[in-house]
């Protein structure tokens, strides 16, 4: 039987942390221990955590990144497994129970489930919701079938502690520790697993300011890992290298796809509205089937999922800008010694209480995730928050 410790790094999370800890308390297979790292918070994060009966660890100063906070807690873990959960993530009640069996295979070193958005209040959250539904029901299953997942999501990953300690802990050399560890372990011949039936709800940026910070960190971190690992991936994990190469090519060619309707209008006699309609229709045909499957798979209302589809073009535009910035900075300027790249970890959400969910919002999130896992109609997932 596996034992498991949960690490929750938290900086100024007094309003959002209760929902995370309450979800852990509802797990059908409860963790053996929950460690909250109160990373020099200036609010009541530590007090809130202590009130939930968990162990609170307080570094003497702010550690500056999630990986460093997690590493601060790692020596306190004595179980064979470690579950890293973000302080704004709510797990399904059976998350741990669903993930644990994959570790019966001794080759498995890290595993994570499906991530969905907790809130769909703004255009940015709705666009991210669409991205998650598409990615976790199209890209991720294909990668899982090929035994080459691109990443085990850092907001809800389970690690084999012995492997994690032997590796030196959560990697701090890149700005995205989850991708770094997922690639490093697969290069070393270990197995990373996507567990589709395990569901986690993450709080994503609610406005453009914080979306930009999160996307810049994600894209810069991806390119840092490309710079660090691509050669070894080609030699030792060619299928994963293929996914990575395709992702880079998608970034490089994305401007051509976005410019297609305007180029056609300029080069032919067709009016711009007609070429835009053709372009949008083609993109819809490529995007809609996985979303329809995701709606059925998760018990979501189809109309609610399709309603959010136009919002994804707003988040895609932000993704494109920062993906290209990451290519230039991390894959060109850093190797030339003209930039240090992104080294400062910034959260994708504000620390202010206004950005945090209310108690009623936490309850709606719990109801939504239960409905989604049970396969019941859960259109309220998209509407409640």
Automatic annotation (TrEMBL):
Decide whether keyword Transmembrane helix is in the record: yes
Q: Which InterPro entries match?
A: Glyco_trans_2-like, Nucleotide-diphossugar_trans
Q: Which UniProt keywords apply?
A: Membrane, Transmembrane, Transmembrane helix
Which intervals carry biased composition (Low complexity)?
A: 368-385
**Domain Glycosyltransferase 2-like as annotated: residue spans:** 5-163
Region called Disordered, residue ranges:
352-385
Q: Where are the transmembrane segments?
A: 239-258, 278-295
Q: What is this protein called?
A: Glycosyltransferase family 2 protein
Native organism:
Streptomyces ramulosus
Traced from the root, the source organism's taxonomic lineage reads:
Bacteria, Bacillati, Actinomycetota, Actinomycetes, Kitasatosporales
